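INTERNAL AUDIT FORM
Audit reference: QA-55
Scope: verify that the stored structure record matches its stored sequence.
Auditor: D.O.
Record contents follow.
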Amino acid sequence: MKNRKKCEKRAYTRIKREGIFKVSVVGIITTQNNIIEIEEKIQSYKINEKNIIIITKENVSNIKNVKFDMIIIFDQIEEDEEIKKVVRESKYVLLNSDYKENLKLIDEHTNSYVITFGYNSRASITIISNDNDEIILEIQREIDLAKNKKIECQEIKMNNNFAKKYIYEEIAMKILTILLKI
């Protein structure tokens, strides 16, 4: 009994020290033709890729029993029951809300905490400036996280040293790195 309590205390201390999302399983839902770019973004942001699973319509049936702490959707994804189930059962969903089709993946059965991003003014995180040199994101409302952690309203500057067609991937990876640091 004494050893069990010691192990539990060590595990709790490790989770506390490593943060909320450090030991999480993150799923990135994307189209088949985007996988190489995503892997490059993960490496460029120095995100630990051991806990990241890239999900496509073709492989979603192979991972339907995985419980994700966070799902990231930045591409336009067609409505699919298996993908909806994965989204519904995750704790957090980081969703590109500029594609209206993505909103169909969130339904009344979703218990996830949804964080939206994009150019539209209703998103939780909005792109307020997209100049040649930098992009400025604005967190428009406080984001509540587990263990009484919060991300306050703020502006986040990003270097704009990537092709414009990858803007959503860059923004999603930037938000993920912020969440992983908490």
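Auditor finding: record pair retrieved intact. Helices lie at 2-18, 35-44, 81-88, 100-103, 167-181.
Action required: none
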